[in-house]
UniProtKB/TrEMBL annotation:
Protein name: ABC transporter permease
Transmembrane feature ranges: 21-40, 300-321, 348-375, 395-419, 448-467, 693-717, 745-764, 776-797
Membrane topology according to the record: Multi-pass membrane protein
Location in or out of the cell: Cell membrane
Pfam family, one: FtsX
Sequence ranges assigned to domain ABC3 transporter permease C-terminal in this UniProt record: 307-424, 699-808
Species whose genome carries this gene: Adhaeribacter swui
Domain of life: Bacteria
GO molecular function: transmembrane transporter activity
Transmembrane helix keyword on record: yes
Length: 816
C-alpha cells in the first residue's frame, strides 16, 4: 500500500512541476538554514567536553573601578605558585603564561649537526606551563617522559602537528633533544611530543615551555612574578578541585590569599578585587572573562540563530500550507473520484502526508547538497574549525532525518485534513471552491499569512535598526581623529633601538602629516589600567586607564586641550595630562583648577600639566572612564598620513616609504601596521556579523512570505473567478478590479506590521542596552520597514490580480 502512495506522490509531482518546485524551494530554504545552524551549534557546544570537566575551573578576577563592575581572566602572576602551598582542596594547579605583545614568538629551529637553521615568525599557541597541564587534559604521549618533561627550565613539549611543522623530515623519537630559540630570550630543548587533542577546547596551545624557564630569564620581571597588586591578561591559572570538594570554600581561601598579599585591594568602597572560580564549560561562552586572544562564543547568539532557524522553518511550513490549499481546486475532482471508488479519509490523509514527505525529502536532499556551498558562502560567520567534513557525522544524518519527518508532519497535516474532507458529490459538481466549509477556512490562511509577515517585519525592523546603531558606533565622533592614522610596533627583543632615527625619517616623508612614538592608541580593545593616587587626597586611589607618548601624540590624534599645556619630551614619565572625566572624579568643576595638582604614580609625585577633552578609550559598549596621558617615548609608532585625495595614492606611497625605512633599519623583520579606524570597526565584529545574518534572514523570510502570499492570492482569485467575470461584464475596469483584489492583501500585511512593531521594539530596546552610547528608536525606522513590506506585497499580489482582471469573463462564466 505504501508503494502505491509513493507512486501516486511521484506522479503528482511530475504533473504539477512548477507547484512542486516552489514547494521544494520554500522547504529547502528553511531546512538549509536549520542544518547550517545545527552544525554551528553542535560545534560550539562541543568545546571543553573533557574528563572531570565539572571539577576544573579557571581562576578569574571580579573588579570594581570607581563603582563600575569589571572582570578579568588575568590574575596576579604569583598566584599559581601560592595555591599549592596555601590552599587546600585543590588537586591540580596549572599556570598558563602567554608571550607578551601579541602572544606570538619568533622561533629559530636548530635541526642539529645536519641542515640549516630556519626561522618562523609570529608562531602562535605557545605557553609557559607546568607538568600538571598534561594531567588536566587527556593528552597521549608519543615521545618523551610524561613525568619529567617540564620539570627543568629550558624544556619544551610539542604537539605532533607542531613537531612535524618544525622537523618535517625527522621521526618523532629523533626530534627529542633538538633545540628551539624563542625570540632572543632563550633556547629550549624538545623534551616530549604529545598527540593533538581530537576534541575542541579553549585550552588550545600546541607548544609548551617549562614554567621554571621564567625564573631563569628576564621574563621573571616582565611577567611580574612577585607582584600581587597588578596583573596582565597574559597570566591565567586553572585548577582542578579534589573529588567531592565544592568550589565555594576554595574561592574563599583564594580571596584570603588576595587580602594577605594585597592588603589594599578592598579598602575603598568604590574599588574592590575578588577572586572567583569560573567553571570550565563556561569559559568558551562567557564574554566577561574573555582571555587573551580567546575566541568566545556567545550563547545568546546561538539562541538567536536557533530562533532564526525556527522562524524560517515555520515560514516554510506556512508557505507549504497556503500553496497546497490554494491548489486544492486542481485536486478536488481527483479526491471526489477516489472517495466514490471507496477510498477512506484515512487513506487520503496517508496519501497527502506521503506526498508531503516526498517533497520534504527532496528539499532535505537539496539542502544537504547545498550545505558545502553554504559553508563556503558563510565562512566569515562560522567558528574556526568547522569544515564541510562535519556534514558526514552520524548526528547530522539523524538530525536531518528527524527534521524531515517533523516538517512533513507540521506542513502536511492541515492540508491533508482539508483535502481529505471534501464531499464527493459537491466536488464532482465543481462546487468545491465555493462551499461554506471552504469559505470558513479562508480566515485560517489569512492568519497564517499575517503570521508570516509578522516574522518578516520583525526581521526588517531589526535589520534597519542594527545597521543604524553600527553606523553610529563606527562613525560617531570619538574625541580624536582616527581617519588616516596607522600604528605599528618596533621589533621586540632586537637588542638595538633605532626609535629616534626611524621617527625622524618617517616625519621627513612628504606623504606623512606627523608621527609620534608612545604606548597604545587612544582607543584599544584591551584596556590598560594603572593605580594612580591623587596626592592631596590619598583616599582617591583609582585604577585609571593610562596612555603615553611624545609631544606629537596629541597632534597625531588631534586631541584638544581644555586647559594647561601639552607634555614635554622625556624618556620617562615626569608629568601627566588627564581627561575631563578624571578631572571631575578628582573634584574639579573647572578644568583649569586641576593644573598644577599632583598624582602619585610608581611612588613618585608627578604634576598635572593639562586637561584634554574626553575621548572614547573603549568601544561604545563602555562608558568613558578616567584616563591619564604621560610623557614618555615608546616602541609603538603613531602616524597620521596626509589626506588621500581622489586620484592620488598618498597612503600607498606613505606605507611603502615606511616599510622601506623599517626593513632597512631592521632587516628581516616584518612591517605590520594597522589603521586605527579598522581597529575601531573590529570592536563591533559580533554586531557586524549579526547585521549580515539579519540581512540574510530578512531576505529569506520575505522570499518565503511572498511565496505564501502568492499561494493565498492564487486561492482567493480562484475562489472569486466568477465574481471577477460578473464585475467585468457589468463594466468594471482592470484598474478597479486589480485594486479590489490587492486591497485585502494590503490590509493583512498592514495588520502584520502593527502586530510586529511592539515585538520588534521590545527586543531591540533590550539589545541597545548593551551600548552605553546608543541611538534612539525612532518612528521613522518602523515607517520605512512598513512601507518596504507593503511595496513588496503589492508587487507580489499585483501580478496575479492583473492577470485575473484582464482574463476573458466568458471563461469564468462558462459553467453558469
Amino acid at each position: 500500500m505504501q508503494y502505491i502512495h509513493f507512486k501516486i506522490a511521484l506522479r503528482n509531482l511530475r504533473r504539477h512541476q512548477v507547484f512542486s518546485l516552489i514547494n521544494v524551494l520554500g522547504l529547502a530554504i528553511g531546512i538549509s538554514a536549520s542544518l547550517l545552524i545545527f552544525l554551528i551549534t553542535q560545534h560550539e557546544l562541543s568545546y571543553d567536553q573533557l574528563p572531570d570537566k565539572d571539577r576544573v575551573y579557571r581562576v578569574v578576577l571580579d573588579l570594581k573601578f570607581n563603582g563600575e563592575a569589571g572582570h578579568s581572566a588575568g590574575v596576579p602572576a604569583p598566584l599559581s605558585q601560592t595555591i599549592p602551598v596555601e590552599v587546600t582542596g585543590v588537586e591540580l594547579t596549572v599556570p598558563i603564561m602567554h608571550f607578551q605583545g601579541d602572544a606570538t614568538a619568533k622561533v629559530t629551529i636548530h635541526p642539529g649537526s645536519t641542515g640549516q637553521a630556519k626561522i618562523l615568525k609570529k608562531q602562535a599557541g605557545i605557553i609557559f606551563t607546568n607538568q600538571q597541564y598534561f594531567s588536566l587534559l587527556p593528552y597521549q604521549w608519543l615521545a618523551g617522559s610524561p613525568a619529567t618533561a617540564l620539570q627543568q627550565p629550558f624544556r619544551v613539549v610539542l604537539t605532533q602537528s607542531r613537531a612535524q611543522q618544525y622537523f618535517p623530515t625527522l621521526n618523532l623519537a629523533d626530534i627529542i633533544g633538538k633545540t628551539l630559540r624563542y625570540n632572543s630570550d632563550f633556547t629550549a630543548t624538545v623534551a616530549g611530543i604529545v598527540q593533538d587533542l581530537p576534541q575542541n577546547t579553549t585550552l588550545d596551545a600546541v607548544e609548551f615551555i617549562s614554567f621554571p624557564t621564567i625564573a631563569e630569564t628576564h621574563l621573571q620581571e616582565n611577567f611580574m612574578m612577585n607582584v600581587w597588586n597588578d596583573w596582565m591578561a597574559y597570566s591565567q591559572v586553572y585548577v582542578k578541585l579534589a573529588p567531592n570538594n565544592p568550589a565555594a570554600p576554595v574561592a574563599k581561601q583564594l580571596n584570603a590569599l588576595l587580602n594577605k598579599y594585597h592588603p589594599n585591594a578592598n579598602r575603598q568602597p568604590g574599588n574592590a578585587l575578588r577572586f572567583a572560580l569560573q567553571p570550565l564549560p563556561d569559559v568558551h561562552f562567557n564574554q566577561d572573562y574573555a582571555g587573551f586572544n580567546q575566541r568566545v562564543a556567545q550563547k545568546f547568539i546561538l539562541y538567536g540563530l536557533l530562533a532564526v532557524a525556527a522562524f524560517l522553518l515555520t515560514l516554510a511550513c506556512i508557505n507549504f500550507i497556503n500553496l497546497t490549499t490554494a491548489n486544492s481546486a486542481q485536486r478536488a475532482k481527483e479526491i471526489g473520484i477516489r472517495k466514490t471508488m471507496g477510498s477512506s479519509r484515512q487513506q487520503l490523509i496517508t496519501q497527502f502526508l506521503t506526498e508531503t514527505l516526498v517533497l520534504t525529502s527532496l528539499a532535505g536532499l537539496l539542502s544537504f547538497g547545498l550545505a558545502p556551498v553554504l559553508l563556503q558562502l558563510f565562512a566569515d560567520f562560522l567558528p574556526p574549525g568547522l569544515q564541510s567534513g562535519a556534514l558526514w557525522q552520524p548526528g547530522v544524518f539523524l538530525f536531518l532525518a528527524g527534521l524531515t519527518l517533523l516538517v512533513s508532519f507540521l506542513a502536511g497535516w492541515y492540508p491533508a485534513l482539508v483535502l481529505s474532507g471534501y464531499e464527493p458529490v459537491k466536488v464532482l459538481k465543481a462546487q468545491a471552491t465555493v462551499t461554506g466549509a471552504q469559505t470558513r477556512q479562508v480566515w485560517i490562511r489569512q492568519t497564517l499569512t499575517v503570521s508570516q509577515f509578522v516574522i518578516a517585519q520583525v526581521f526588517v525592523v531589526a535589520t534597519l535598526l542594527v545597521g543604524k546603531q553600527l553606523n553610529y558606533a563606527v562613525h560617531t565622533e570619538l574625541g580624536f581623529t582616527k581617519e588616516g592614522v596607522l600604528t605599528f610596533n618596533l621589533p621586540r627583543n632586537n637588542g638595538i633601538n633605532h626609535r629616534q632615527q626611524m621617527l625622524n625619517e618617517i616625519n621627513a616623508l612628504p606623504t606623512v602629516e606627523v608621527a609620534s612614538t608612545g604606548f597604545l592608541a587612544p582607543i584599544e580593545e584591551g584596556p590598560a589600567f594603572t593605580q594612580i593616587t591623587y596626592a592631596p587626597k590619598p583616599e582617591l586611589k583609582d585604577p585609571v586607564q593610562i596612555r603615553w607618548g611624545d609631544p606629537n601624540y596629541l597632534q597625531v590624534y588631534q586631541i584638544k586641550l581644555r586647559a594647561g599645556r601639552n607634555v614635554r619630551a622625556s624618556d620617562s614619565i615626569t608629568e601627566f595630562l588627564i581627561n575631563e572625566t578624571y578631572a571631575r572624579r578628582l573634584g574639579f568643576k573647572n578644568p583649569e583648577a586641576a593644573i598644577g595638582q599632583s598624582l602619585i604614580f610608581n611612588d613618585k609625585k608627578l604634576p598635572i600639566v593639562g586637561v584634554v577633552q574626553d575621548f572614547h578609550a573603549e568601544s561604545m559598549h563602555r562608558p568613558i572612564t578616567p584616563v591619564v596621558l604621560g610623557n614618555n617615548n615608546g616602541d609603538i609608532f603613531h602616524v597620521r598620513l596626509k589626506p588621500n585625495l581622489p586620484g592620488t595614492d598618498n597612503w600607498q606611497q606613505a606605507i611603502a616609504g615606511m616599510q622601506q625605512i623599517y626593513q632597512r633599519i631592521y632587516p628581516g623583520e616584518d612591517f605590520d601596521y594597522r589603521f586605527v579606524d579598522d581597529a575601531v570597526a573590529s570592536f563591533y565584529q559580533t554586531e557586524q556579523r549579526t547585521a549580515k545574518l539579519l540581512n540574510w534572514a530578512t531576505g529569506l523570510s520575505l522570499l518565503i512570505s511572498c511565496l505564501g502570499l502568492l499561494g493565498l492570492a492564487m486561492y482567493t482569485i480562484q475562489a472569486r473567478t466568477k465574481e471577477i467575470g460578473i464585475r467585468k461584464v457589468l463594466g468594471a475596469s482592470v484598474n478597479s478590479i486589480t485594486a479590489l483584489l490587492s486591497r485585502d492583501f494590503l490590509k493583512l500585511v498592514l495588520l502584520a506590521n502593527l502586530l510586529a512593531w511592539p515585538v520588534a521594539w521590545y527586543g531591540l530596546h533590550h539589545w541597545l542596552q548593551n551600548f552605553t552610547y546608543r541611538i534612539a528608536i525612532g518612528w521613522e525606522v518602523f515607517a520605512l520597514a512598513g512601507a518596504a513590506t507593503l511595496l513588496v506585497t503589492l508587487l507580489t499580489v499585483s501580478f496575479q490580480a492583473i492577470k485575473a482582471a484582464v482574463a476573458n469573463p466568458v471563461n469564468a462564466l462558462r459553467n453558469e
